[in-house]
Design brief:
Layout (H helix, E strand, L loop, with lengths): L1 H25 L8 H19 L6 H28 L6 H31 L3 H20 L11 H12 L9 H4 L2 H16 L1 H9 L8 H10 L8 H27 L10 H13 L20 H15 L2 H23 L13 H24 L11 H17 L12 H13 L12 H15 L6 E2 L2 E2 L2 H28 L5 H12 L14 H16 L1 H9 L21
Antiparallel strand pairs: 1-2
């Protein structure tokens, strides 16, 4: 009975801790933000956790969550007391170090509690798509509140601008109405970076990651929900897949940080106070395809405009983040098995037979489409912009690297190393086309997706040849996949067209080409702009916010979340006679 009261008290205490963290971070003059109070809070919560753990009748999942929280809190207490006892007389900044330890432990603790709560919610609500939508909307509004804190901005900003920036970060778009470098403080940039990471991976992927550490026999229903979030057809080892996604992301971002750091370390021209933070920020921003930069002019800034090694690193991070986790894992499995095969054959004289069809048809289509778009885009930018925006790059290899970078970033991210105001009309229309296609499924990018475009194109070719079904490499593509690809294309065109009409009505002074470019960029979460974003009215900004959410979540996911019924429909039990409609 006592333990139950402790549980209730802890449940009530968690939102209070969250508010305390917000006040502590948001207001530097907050009088209750000191080491003694922080240590007292952590100590009280740790004691409550210990008392709750004494209850033998606790639910396994809840007990695991309590134990993990207790471990995190005790770790910060041990570090803090070691600092006090051994380094008190040698380090004057000991209080600030202890503040950081305890504050981080409280933030992780709140995150673990939210994770456990989210798990309960998406088990009880029988609509994965609805939860997926809600998580992005909730994260956008939470981010806007954090970005409006006095400690986050240099000067006061409006709620619309904060919501726009937060949504752009969560939806990994990169469209900005404020100067990230000048209008946000160091803390504000950290908030933006966290929103980018959460939005790129998806808050429910991270929820699944934490669930892995306090799972208690994951139910089949929960496995189905998580497989929906990770865009995988199987329910086997979905938690392990979530862990792989998070760990792979962190590993690539860490390697990217090191490469960026060493590519700019010798230059000493970066317009940033901290080169390490610059490297971390741009590595995460690039892999998540967000396009945010801590430089006022983005990557067009003089300090990195001609740093071609840096641009190649960013480009490959963009491609890795935009190709899709399932594709990457499948491709790496193929490479590993190939290496293993030749290793056994050379060193051990053993034959190793790879499993049949290691590389799936989906992987082949995505990789070939991505490769074609990258090559074709590189050649197109090189030819169309040779005498225009590329003219400031004197070297032959510089022009090709910049063209390659522009081809990669146009489909997925908002980085740019060319002066977009000097783009020719044909380049602008081609960029719109690349933005519309976007990245690949189950990736951090947006757009209609490469596989959707490839399927629709191949189906048109198949119909032109007189075939009544689509066949690729001796496999017949399901009619459901074809119908879905054409539905996504049609819905995207309708939404984009209506959005352009509304913004033209709200901002009649703006150029129609610039408005169209902005709308395509927002919907495809590409983040490129011709420079009109900050000049738009609040109504137009709200339209772009909605477009970014639709583009990141997916129009079809939104429709499923709003319209689909969970029970089996009656249409499964009958079929009407076929009717033919005159098309052409």
């Amino acid at each position: 009975m006592i333990q139950i009261r402790f549980q209730n008290f802890l449940d009530m205490f968690t939102p209070i801790i969250f508010i305390y963290i917000i006040l502590s971070l948001g207001w530097k003059t907050f009088r209750f933000f000191n080491v003694e109070i922080l240590l007292g809070i952590v100590l009280i919560i740790s004691m409550l956790h210990f008392l709750i753990l004494l209850d033998k009748n606790l639910d396994k999942g809840y007990k695991s969550m309590i134990f993990l929280s207790f471990f995190i809190l005790m770790l910060s207490l041990i570090f803090s007391f070691l600092k006090i006892f051994f380094f008190y007389y040698y380090n004057e900044n000991i209080t600030s170090d202890i503040k950081i330890y305890t504050l981080i432990s409280l933030i992780v603790y709140v995150l673990i509690r939210v994770t456990y709560f989210m798990r309960i919610v998406y088990v009880k609500i029988h609509n994965p798509a609805f939860i997926f939508i809600t998580s992005f909307v909730f994260l956008s509004f939470l981010g806007s509140i954090l970005l409006m804190l006095p400690a986050s901005t240099v000067k006061k900003i409006s709620f619309i601008d904060a919501l726009f920036t937060s949504t752009s970060a969560v939806c990994v778009t990169g469209l900005v109405v404020l100067d990230t470098a000048k209008d946000f403080t160091y803390l504000g940039k950290i908030f933006i970076l966290i929103l980018i990471e959460l939005g790129g991976l998806g808050i429910l992927t991270i929820t699944s990651f934490f669930s892995y550490f306090f799972r208690d026999g994951f139910s089949f229903k929960e496995a189905i929900f998580i497989s929906n979030f990770l865009n995988t057809k199987t329910t086997n080892n979905v938690l392990s897949l979530a862990v792989k996604v998070v760990m792979f992301t962190l590993t690539v971002e860490f390697i990217g940080t090191l490469l960026i750091y060493f590519s700019i370390k010798e230059k000493n021209t970066i317009e940033s106070d901290n080169i390490l933070f610059f490297s971390i920020f741009h590595s995460i921003s690039a892999f998540c395809n967000s396009g945010f930069s801590t430089l006022s002019q983005g990557l067009y800034s003089q300090s990195v405009r001609f740093n071609y090694i840096f641009q190649l690193i960013i480009a490959f991070l963009l491609i890795l983040g935009g190709i899709g986790f399932n594709i990457l894992f499948n491709f790496f499995t193929y490479i590993w098995l190939t290496i293993k095969k030749y290793f056994l054959k050379i060193f051990k004289d053993e034959d190793f037979r790879c499993p049949v069809h290691v590389v799936t048809l989906n992987t082949k289509i995505v990789i070939l489409t991505t490769f074609f778009l990258l090559v074709f885009g590189t050649v197109f930018y090189y030819i169309s912009e040779y005498h225009c925006s590329l003219s400031e790059h004197s070297s032959f290899h510089g022009k090709w690297i910049v063209s390659f970078f522009s081809s990669a970033t146009s489909r997925t991210a908002g980085f740019h190393v060319l002066n977009m105001n000097t783009f020719t009309p044909i380049t602008i229309f081609f960029t719109i086309f690349l933005m519309w296609i976007g990245a690949s499924p189950a990736s951090t990018g947006g757009g209609i997706k490469t596989s959707t475009f490839a399927l629709a194109l191949m189906n048109v070719i198949s119909l032109s040849r007189g075939k009544n079904r689509l066949e690729i490499q001796r496999k017949e593509i399901s009619s459901e996949s074809i119908r879905l690809s054409f539905s996504i294309i049609m819905l995207s065109i309708i939404v984009i067209y209506i959005s352009i009409l509304i913004i033209i009505f709200l901002d009649p002074k703006e150029d129609i080409l610039s408005i169209s470019f902005e709308v395509f960029s927002a919907f495809s979460t590409a983040g490129l702009s011709l420079g009109i974003t900050s000049n738009l009215s609040n109504g137009s900004k709200l339209i772009l916010i909605l477009l970014m959410l639709l583009g990141r979540i997916g129009i079809f996911n939104v429709m499923i979340g709003l319209l689909k019924k969970n029970k089996i429909g009656s249409h499964h039990y009958y079929r009407y006679p076929k009717g033919n409609i005159l098309i052409n």
